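Shipment paperwork, digital attachment
Item: protein structure file
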Amino acid sequence: MKIPVEITYRDVEKTDYLDELINKKVAKLERYCNYMSSCRVVVEKIHDRPKSGSPYRVRLDITVPPGHELAASENPQEGVQYESLEAVIRDAFEAARRQLVELVQRQRDEVKTHTTEEIDSYSVPQI
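Attachment content:
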């Protein structure tokens, strides 16, 4: 990566463990796209005592040449009670990984296209 990873913490205590976890996750992303220009990660605590969901939100902003901006975030809502910060980080990076893989496939023109024959075989028969 051309620019070092920028990690911002808002109302979350910065620890070596979190820095190491995020840097490991970014290194895994680089396996899918080794030419990322920059990666910014924001980890924030948005609620002290939410009624539901997680008190944490994680957002990633990734720049990939020749001018692609990817944004992935994880903000667990209802149904997910007090998910840990590590789990929220993991889910945000998984969302970013899916976007990166899709972008790289489009850039390499590896997106599967269906031939007319395949499309016709899946069509609904006429009654």
